[in-house]
Amino acid sequence: MAISDSYPTCHEVLVDGQTADTWDDMIRGFEDANIYQTHAYGAVRWGERYLSHLVLSKGGKALAAAQLRIVRAPVLPVGVAYARWGPLCRVRGGEPDPEVLAKMLECMRGEYCGRRGLVLQIIPNAYSASGPGDEFAMALEKTGFREDPSLPRYRTVHVDLTPAVEIMRKRLHQKWRNQLNGAEKNGLEFEVARDTRAYDEFVHLYHGMRDRKGFDSAVDVGEFGRIQETLAECRKMPVFLARKDGHAVGALVCSLMGDTAIYLLGATNDRARELKASYFLHWQAMLWLKSEGARCYDLGGIDPVANPGGHHFKSGFGGNDVTQIAPVSISGGLVGGAVLRGISWLRRKRAGA
Q1: Entry pTM
Q2: Which of 9, 86, 230, 271 is deepest in the core (most CB within 10 A)?
Q3: Segment holding 106, helix H or strand E
Q4: To which H or E segment does residue 213 belong?
């Protein structure tokens, strides 16, 4: 369905009507494409019938796009439209255009708040203290969005993959580099695959690690497995395996879309620590991702308080500690505002439980 009555005629706004293939083919044209905006992630995580898509284009070329989850109350005419790591607005081979972003946000607000009467929540894929991030934040504010404290902010480490390999290695912290030097002497083998067998090897390592360490995790490796099965062959998540004498001792699962690779999942067994397999795996993964055109390696989130060990390990990569700009929301009226306040209250209550 195209809507154009409230928008400049030189642009076209297409709402819904996308198939899994047409959507995922289209988002390949964006540098900020990411797994959370793929049809496979949305369909598996939320259910295909709860997805909505909005595309802003000009002359048949997509300039911005967003996949959203739509949740409605069973009886009341209220609900939420939720975009994770969207909208996509950095077209491959072009310069970021703040005007296009502002127009896209206006269209999203008009469709989901104005026409459908929903609360619109956005977790932007943009980072504080950067030019694009600042422009994104300004566009959100100008369009009427406000910070939503009920949604968490994502903090991570970004490793620049554009320098020469020797420079990347020099940027590693000394102790981290020493561990890598030791790992490289341990006869580890490196493998990259995207098939079911490789993912199953990761799952086997993951369950063994969870049983050994006795931790609870919100990560559902089975769900990511279903996403992997649903993704088109060329977009499947690469699985990086470290082997010793032919047996897997560690595995990483990443996503590579746009110009950024994201570390999603990892697992090791008992032998991995003595072999320093995690250092070997991440380094080899970075080299492979660089060879595939990735410009940045997102280490998948850090929390110095809840996970100081993970924070210490990831700090050794010599990357930049970055935080996404604040999630935002906007309501479609008094009822929508009440819904938004209710969502915020529930999330605060759960966080305090």
Answers
A1: 0.90
A2: 86
A3: helix 98-108
A4: helix 196-213
